[in-house]
Amino acid sequence: QVELVESGGGMVQPGGSLRLACAASGRFFGINFMSWFRQAPGKERELLAAISWSGGTTNYADSVKDRFTISRDNAKNTMYLQMNSLKAEDTAVYYCAAAQIPSITKNPYNYDYWGQGTQFTVSS
């Protein structure tokens, strides 16, 4: 069992930056990669970025690849999402997730573990 806990949400002005963290605990055997998703009201859960368990491979959605950076601190079992040049449309609940399947997937149903989510609002 893996427990994921997000932190770092809040409110930021347009153009600002924020870093989210996802602390993982438990048994990590079989986890191949971790991802950040977000879900805005009335919209589907959207994959933003993914990173292999080792941290050596990353993948980004086109909508955020020039503004967001995913990273891992293996010693702390923590994943991060650095978000820059924030826009109002980035407002959503942000989730971290972990998956055992071998390939990165956009499908939330393929993920085995989820955090509780953290609300993040971009507003002036």
Biggest sheet descriptor: 7 strands, mixed
Strand composition percent: over 45%
The arrangement of helices and strands along the chain is EEEEEEEEEEE
Helix content: under 10%
Question: What is the 3D shape?
Answer: globular
Amino- and carboxy-terminal Cα gap:
40 Å
- The number of helices is 0
Overall description:
With 124 residues, the chain is mainly β. 0% of the residues lie in helices and 50% in strands. The protein has no helices and eleven strands. It has strands spanning 2-7, 10-12, 18-26, 33-39, 46-52, 58-60, 68-73, 78-83, 92-99, 113-114, 118-122. The strands form two sheets. Strands 2, 4, 5, 6, 9, 10 and 11 form a seven-stranded mixed beta sheet that branches. A four-stranded antiparallel beta sheet has the order 1-3-8-7, with no helix packed on it. It is globular, with a radius of gyration of 13 Å. The termini are far apart.
Briefly say what this structure is.
It is built from no helices and eleven strands.
Fold topology:
Blueprint: E1 2-7, E2 10-12, E3 18-26, E4 33-39, E5 46-52, E6 58-60, E7 68-73, E8 78-83, E9 92-99, E10 113-114, E11 118-122
Parallel strand pairs: 2-11
Antiparallel strand pairs: 1-3, 3-8, 4-5, 4-9, 5-6, 7-8, 9-10, 9-11
